[in-house]
Amino acid sequence: MPTGTLFLIPVPLADNSANKVLTTYQQEIINNIRTYIVENEKTARYWLKSMNLHTPQSELSIHVYGKHSEKNDISTYFKELEAGVDVGLMSEAGCPAVADPGSEIVAEAHRRKIKVAPMVGPSSILLALMGSGFSGQSFTFHGYLPIDKVQRSKKIKELELNSQRLDQTQIFIETPFRNNQMLEELLKTCSAKTKLCVGVNLTGEDEQIISQSIELWRKQKADFHKKPAIFLLYR
Question: If you ran DSSP here, which 8-state letter would residue 99 be given?
């Protein structure tokens, strides 16, 4: 019996942005799928509704993985796929398995010879890089930097040095309620000529992409508290 396809379904990054970032094809796919593997069930149901899902949600079969799941054995997620049923994989925002959980599900699908179909969608990493004016030929995404102030400052200096040495854009994120502390540390640690880009609530109605030197950042007051943001350094 042929297996189903594991569709990697991007999720909008901001409220009221689904029609702006999703294609008609993606909407057709989600309306043909009844089984989902998701990072968070509540979030998934919210986004599916915003993505013009016509199927009654009571008819959906939703499996939860990652930090919101009590399951350790991921083999249970593949019963439908191996029975020939198409399944959608979703994270809480953006592209599954890119700066979000999901890669172990994809890896297991490959091991089981199940077709994997990634779909086009919003990635804060690529959107911020595109809008930064920094090098898109060479870049590195680091995820979260250390919380400890000493270690974080050390890491920032390392990223700044690597950017200059390798001509490489350094990309990282922070928990929204610590954005202002991260910005403060960057302005204190980095050289005046180093460039910093901050992308805030990308694709949202109040989207901001600010890209300028540390010297100019120090001359203005910015407040990104509790807003989804991504940071890019380039020297």
Answer: S
